[in-house]
TrEMBL record:
Domain called HhH-GPD: residue spans: 39-188
Enzyme Commission (EC) number: 3.2.2.31
SUPFAM superfamilies linked: DNA-glycosylase, Nudix
Keywords, comma-separated and alphabetical: 4Fe-4S, DNA damage, DNA repair, Glycosidase, Hydrolase, Iron, Iron-sulfur, Metal-binding
Stated name of the protein: Adenine DNA glycosylase
Organism (species): Reyranella aquatilis
Annotated catalysed reactions: Hydrolyzes free adenine bases from 7,8-dihydro-8-oxoguanine:adenine mismatched double-stranded DNA, leaving an apurinic site
SMART domains from the UniProt entry: ENDO3c (SM00478)
Top-level taxonomic group: Bacteria
UniProt-listed InterPro entries: A/G_AdeGlyc_MutY, DNA_glycosylase, Endonuclease-III-like_CS2, Endouclease-III_FeS-bd_BS, HhH-GPD_domain, HhH_base_excis_C, HhH_motif, MIG/MutY
PANTHER family, per database record: ADENINE DNA GLYCOSYLASE
Required cofactor(s): [4Fe-4S] cluster
Length: 349
DNA sequence: AACGCGTGGGG
DNA sequence: TCCCCAAGCGT
């Protein structure tokens, strides 16, 4: 019995039902495979579920998604993080509609040419949507392979070796099930801490287990410490319960998303009086007690929050790119989580 | 080829 | 409270 046979037999018994997963023996439509894979990049299954359902209900086809305004896509994506994914998702939908007549290509080169589709996602789409024997190596598979072969080289240096070994195991038959089985194994059995080796279908083959070092693998290069940036966020409220928002630049951190105005976020000591000079409008700003803390990929953020009530006279001439949004309609806006926390902090206190 | 890029849950 | 890390990609 080969590695793939053992894994597929396990998968047939333990296959999970997921929103994007077709019934046994059937294929998920390429649009759904693609959409779920983009959402699942660096994001947990539990988080993605509801977003996936909302997206496919609102945009049932790639052409519908391509026809949507980018801002609608960003709003629907709000909270999922890594917002470049949403921008690329939209661009990719348009490319598939325009270049490929609304059908996803099956070959690796064409897939890799689409925005937001890299090595892993191209392989996952080939395998899951088209049952082609492509090797999809994500973080789960890296862990499984590193343990299976007791690869002691730390990531990311071990990646080429892992890629080669993973590719050698891919079966010609049931490639889609195999790809999902490897990821499921990593997500439910060969987990980062306290791996459940005793129920693992590959236990007999696992060199890491034999050596007693499975849980320590994969080793990783030490990561850099995160600096802390600080700033002052301005929540301007209208008496009827609306808040002033502005649009962030199209690229970079939270690119294309909405935010409340704020002073620049900088490392080092926070000087409230100088930050206050960045206020979007002259008003009686009240500095709230407490801080809003948020951690991004590469830095911690501590925002002090100032609040003011807008007087009707100065509402008209606000800077371009700014707009009012009623507090009960914030869900419809492209507000990242950090900004929801800021507004909540300002309103509830 | 490093680095920039979000967020939430678990230990 | 903190650290880890998750179905990675673009530059």
């Amino acid at each position: 019995m080969t590695h793939a046979d053992r894994l597929l037999a396990w998968y047939d018994r333990h296959r999970r039902t997921l929103p994007w997963r077709a019934a046994p023996g059937e294929r998920t439509a390429p649009y759904r495979v693609w959409l779920s894979e983009i959402m699942l990049q660096q994001t947990t299954v539990a988080t993605v579920g509801e977003y996936f359902r909302r997206f496919v209900e609102r945009w049932p086809t790639v052409e519908a998604l391509a026809a949507a305004p980018l801002d609608d896509v960003l709003s629907a994506w709000a909270g999922l993080g890594y917002y470049a994914r949403a921008r690329n998702l939209h661009a990719c939908a348009q490319a598939v509609s325009d270049r490929h007549g609304g059908r996803f290509p099956e070959d690796e080169a064409s897939l890799l040419a689409l925005p937001g589709i890299g090595r892993y996602t191209a392989a996952a789409i080939q395998a899951i949507a088209f049952d082609r024997p492509a090797s999809a190596v994500d973080g789960n598979v890296e862990r499984v392979i590193a343990r299976l072969y007791a690869i002691e080289t730390p990531l990311p240096d071990a990646k080429p070796d892992i890629q080669v070994r993973a590719a050698r195991l891919v079966p010609q038959q049931r490639a889609g099930d195999y790809a999902q089985a490897m990821m499921d194994l990593g997500a439910t059995v060969c987990i980062p801490r306290n791996p459940r080796c005793v129920i693992c279908p590959l236990m007999q083959n696992c060199k890491g287990r034999k050596l007693g070092i499975a849980e320590e693998l994969p080793r990783r290069a030490p990561k850099a410490e995160k600096p802390t940036r600080r700033g002052l966020a301005f929540v301007l409220l209208r008496k009827d319960g609306a808040v002033l928002l502005r649009k962030r630049p199209a690229k970079g951190l939270l690119g294309g998303m909405d935010e409340v105005p704020s002073s620049p976020w900088r490392e080092g000591p926070f000087v409230e009086s100088s930050a206050m000079s960045e206020a979007p409008v002259p008003a009686r700003w009240t500095v709230m007690t407490g801080l809003v803390r948020h951690t991004f990929t590469h830095f911690h953020l501590e925002l002090t929050v100032a609040r003011a009530i807008a007087t009707t006279g100065r509402l008209a001439g606000l800077a371009p790119g700014t707009s009012w949004c009623e507090l009960n309609k914030l869900d419809e806006r492209a507000l990242p989580t950090v900004m929801r926390k800021v507004i909540e902090h300002a309103v509830k206190a």
